[in-house]
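QA checklist item 7 of 12: single-chain prediction sanity check.
[x] sequence parsed
[x] length recorded as 794
[x] structure emitted
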Amino acid sequence: MVDKDAAFMKHLLATFRVEADEHLRNISSGLVELEKAEAAEQQAMILESVYRESHSLKGAARSVNLVNVEAICQAMEGVFSAMKRHEVKVSPDLFDLMQQSADHLGRFLSAAEGELGAGDKTVLDELVRRLEEAGKGGTGETEKGRNGEDLSPIPRFPGSPVQGASPTPPFPGSPIQEASPLPPFPDSPFREVSPVSAAMTETVRVSTTKLLSVLLQSEEMLFAKLSAAQRIEHAKESKAAFHAWEKEWVRVLPVMQQIKSTCGNVKTGANGINAAETGREMLKIAEFLEWNRDFIKKMEGRCASELKSAKHDSRTLDGMVNDLLADMKKVLMFPFSSLLEILPKIVRELSRDNGKETDLVIRGEEIEIDRRILEELKDPFVHLIRNSIDHGIESPEERIGKNKPRRGVITVGVSPSDNLVEVVIADDGAGIALDRVRTALLKSGGHTRQSVEELSDQELLPYVFQSGITTSPIITELSGRGLGLAIVREKVEKLGGTVSLETSPETGTSFCIVLPLTVATFHGVLVRLGEQAFVIPTRHVERTVRLEREDIKTVENRETVHLDGEAVSLARLADVLGITPLKTAATSSEMIQLVVLTAAGTRIAFLVDEVLGEQEVLLKSLGRQLSRVRNVAGVTITGSGKVVPILNVPDLLKSAVKFSASAATAETQQIMEQRRSVLVVEDSITTRTLLQNILGSAGYDVLTAVDGLDAITKLKSTEFDIVVSDVEMPRMNGFDLTARIRADKRLAELPVVLVTALGSREDRERGIDAGANAYIVKSNFDQSNLLEVIKRFV
């Protein structure tokens, strides 16, 4: 009986979590809409909606004995009720409190059976107290520190939207969870669900794990389809062999008839007995050949019949597999709205943290895409939204000074195109400062000043996606490392898509992401290098072409070919992949075969031995051990059972560029290997010793100073590669030290990293004004983070 009760509660909790997740998303998005709504009628409608959502969530939590969730919902419901009666003053602080409550609701909901630790219990009590105070007309605020920091025990827990995660932690299996029809439960929101009513509904909840398993099995049927096509090709080869035999038979038939006639007329002579015997044996051979002809003709007829039947079966199988795959893909196609619904809250909180005002406009959220792609797009979207707010949208004062509307606008537009989907994320901010990109590119190494200056603005833009390239004047815990856009490109290319951007000064920046609708099956061009075959996704193949070997020209030490009157860089696929194919007749012939590939604005022609044709391909991953293999996206299995690698075209293009580029000089390598010196400025002996040990263990020569004045003295007598300084120090603080360094012509270019407990936006801006290169808050301190920042500057 106990086991049955436990199983029942397990099913009940699973069902509750699905419903709770939906209620919580609606509350969070409703709060964002309510804060932006201006018309009283619209406000009333949204308020009523979120009020009902919190009430429903409270009732559902009570039904599964989650008293902690019920307590927060009860307190939130009280605030909503007071807002309906106009008994509380609506303010940004109140909305901050409500959003924070929604965030913590997600955290408490994910706790197993509502069990909380001692610290969580304190957070819960403080949160309920604040909500109850706000519901009575209070502010719901807590004491503020001298730098404006929140001294309440309610922390911003990992997974906060500002850190790039979803505002509410997803439940296992969310948003679809397996649940069986349940019997009525007192005061439960599921009391209307019964086996009869559930059977009559048009939808049913099924575990996404089970659906994904069925989809994968359906996709495996593609091999049966390809195998059937391969068998047809073999049957055609047999039919061709029969035709070749028929031609030879017709050619020798007159000779055989003559031999048969001659053997039948053999007469007895001097060797009569032997001649007659030989004639009879020859006659038997001729008769056998005639029988053999009839037998082969019969086999040919049977082969023709089998080929006809195989073609019919293949057409039937093709239709069944194609329809099944199409239907299964539709089952796991999710609308973009399921991903985009988290963005309004992220935009709101990032804007408030950066002192900006931003509106978010979303179009095309009803467009559907493979769930597996959608899951991987969360990080790229958050990085792009953060990039728009951090680097694009100006502060209200700046926008007004530029005759722009006070509030910036970020637009997310989704539109389908054939078997692809295009996502454009654009802002009306200041645009990308290309002069800063040139400076960052020059500092990154590997480029001469002349080569960087010769790049046009359009040629410069792709470098924005290179790791370490940033236009931010300072590094903070949230931005400035040049990693965000690099992560975006890596994620998008891993999904088989491309990302590009356009920017205009004072007008804004737009990022365009083009993705396939599904990741599993696609069409690919099969090419051969020696005995090895490779698949190239068709969406990246501009064209295939045959040229004479003498058409290869050398321009500036690089091989090129002329196509449509334009010089196109040539790369040898075997060299780029690092393989040595066997020399064949094709490789030594005067004609060459090229495959022209394009991605992210790059266009290169690759030399291959042979283009075998195009076919439908099922992508198979290489497993966790080989999750990231350069130039290879996965493998597929042909109809003949042969394993063929699928090439990652964006990787391939980058590898081709690197292969043709010259290696770094020995002098540059020697400079990179020199030991670097760091000046640590810190008044606390404990922190000073910690930083000295961390940097010393990392291979740096470290000298310390106890405050800003001591640091100035040491800087006059010793040369350093970088300064790592605290801010709050006696005699001279870190801000003043940074300003003194920038004012000294000899030290003006010396990198300065501030490591401090002051984490407010105003303090960060003061650090930027002083000239600091990076600003690390001690509450978020991580030694690998510090070492990464220092390595970048030295």
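[x] summary fact logged: The radius of gyration is 36 Å.
[ ] second reviewer sign-off
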